[in-house]
Design a protein that fits this description.
The chain is α+β, with helices and mostly antiparallel strands and about 80 residues long. The chain is built from 2 helices and 2 strands; from the N terminus they run αββα.
Length: about 80
Amino acid sequence: MSEKKEFELPESVVKSTGLSPRDLVVIAQPKMGKSAIFGDFTTKYNGVVLNLEKGGYEYIDARKINIHESQESSDIDAFFLTIVK
């Protein structure tokens, strides 16, 4: 059996080494403000949000692309519609 290791958060800030970010994934608990922050970001800067959740950005002003055409579309429908477009 493998040994359990305790996860520790870093205590100091690590300086960045890259100049231009390529991809960004943000993970947080529900209702933390992720959509609101990125919606605001897209209105101030040249950004776009790829909305992967049905109704995720319905009430947020943002430059956004919805992968679901309607509330009735499934994830499979959205996948194929995104590829075909």
